[in-house]
């Protein structure tokens, strides 16, 4: 994988398309509601790790084929084999799935999920780990680990989900594994918007981001992630340093010059 150029990346376990610096990942097993396999988990993890260095992708959109987002880990290809693994093998698997979320949060590109239909288990986690989420009314989001005899603390759910929808609401979803509807998800702040075409909304949001100062957007994502572990004083100092860096960019100068000339700035991401 050439990590500096991923626009033409040749995906093996999902669809990948990149237009105007917006990459779209389509989970593409519609006959099974787009479940993940050991191989697709690993490829997604490696792709997001590579995006840290990619110079030709500024935003990533994730969606699913056939009217569903993702049904989680494939029952036959993942769940069944897990019941036969020893502790060492199980730890390798759970760390690998957690590494996918780490890679999503660590890459500079904002990630936008477009959710229709079933969004369960690891699918719900991928949506949760995204920066923005748009959905249709058909969306059904379920952190269903409890329903299969597992704890709700999977792939960062107990850390990230309460920060999005609040501790009490996250506790309800994680203890009971029940589905959150599209309407409920928007009302609770999990979804940024609800419409009959969430992919259109996600692509529109991605277009607005690529038209903006993309270097600065990457800094914003990094700050949003890193400040979870900072005091307010640490965060303010970190933002002072980050903003000083952005003030050295050409995009900052372009914005000033455009303001002086009473024009809209045209950002170029440098």
Protein traits:
2 domains; 270 residues; three-stranded mixed sheet; 2-enoyl-CoA Hydratase, Chain A, domain 1; alpha/beta; 11 helices; globular; six-stranded mixed sheet
Explain what this protein looks like in three dimensions.
With 270 residues, the protein is of the alpha/beta class. The protein has two domains: 15-210, Alpha-Beta Complex (2-enoyl-CoA Hydratase, Chain A, domain 1); 214-260. It has helices spanning 38-51, 75-82, 87-106, 122-129, 157-165, 167-176, 182-188, 198-210, 214-226, 232-246, 250-260, and strands at residues 15-19, 22-27, 59-64, 111-115, 118-120, 132-135, 140-142, 179-181, 193-194. The strands form two sheets. The protein has a six-stranded mixed beta sheet, with helices on both faces. Strands 5-7-8 form a three-stranded mixed beta sheet. α1 packs parallel to α3 (87-106), α5 crosses α6 (167-176) and α9 (214-226) packs antiparallel against α10 (232-246). It is globular and about 65 Å long.
Furnish the topology, listing elements before pairings.
Elements: E1 15-19, E2 22-27, H1 38-51, E3 59-64, H2 75-82, H3 87-106, E4 111-115, E5 118-120, H4 122-129, E6 132-135, E7 140-142, H5 157-165, H6 167-176, E8 179-181, H7 182-188, E9 193-194, H8 198-210, H9 214-226, H10 232-246, H11 250-260
Parallel strand pairs: 2-3, 3-4, 4-6, 5-7, 6-9
Antiparallel strand pairs: 1-2, 7-8
């Amino acid at each position: 994988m050439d990590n500096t150029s991923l626009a033409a990346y040749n995906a093996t376990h999902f669809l990948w398309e990149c237009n105007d610096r917006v990459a779209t990942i389509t989970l593409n097993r519609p006959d099974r509601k787009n479940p993940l396999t050991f191989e697709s988990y690993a490829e997604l993890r490696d792709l997001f790790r590579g995006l840290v260095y990619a110079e030709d992708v500024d935003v990533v959109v994730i969606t699913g084929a056939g009217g569903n987002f993702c049904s989680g880990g494939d029952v036959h290809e993942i769940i069944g084999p897990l019941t036969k693994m020893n502790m060492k093998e199980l730890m390798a698997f759970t760390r690998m799935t957690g590494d996918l979320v780490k890679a999503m949060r660590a890459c500079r590109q904002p990630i936008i999920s477009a959710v229709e239909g079933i969004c369960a288990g690891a699918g719900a986690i991928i949506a949760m780990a995204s920066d923005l989420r748009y959905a249709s009314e058909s969306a059904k989001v379920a952190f269903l680990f409890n329903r299969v005899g597992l704890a709700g603390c999977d792939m960062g759910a107990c850390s990230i989900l309460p920060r999005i929808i609040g501790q009490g609401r996250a506790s309800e979803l994680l203890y009971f594994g029940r589905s959150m509807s599209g309407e409920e998800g928007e009302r609770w702040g999990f979804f940024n918007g609800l419409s009959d075409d969430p992919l259109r909304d996600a692509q529109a949001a991605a277009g607005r981001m690529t038209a903006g100062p993309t270097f600065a957007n990457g800094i914003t994502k990094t700050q949003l992630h890193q400040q979870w572990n900072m005091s307010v004083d640490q965060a303010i100092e970190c933002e002072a340093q980050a903003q000083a860096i952005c003030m050295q960019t050409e995009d900052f100068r372009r914005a000033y010059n455009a303001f002086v000339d009473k024009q809209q700035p045209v950002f170029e991401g440098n």
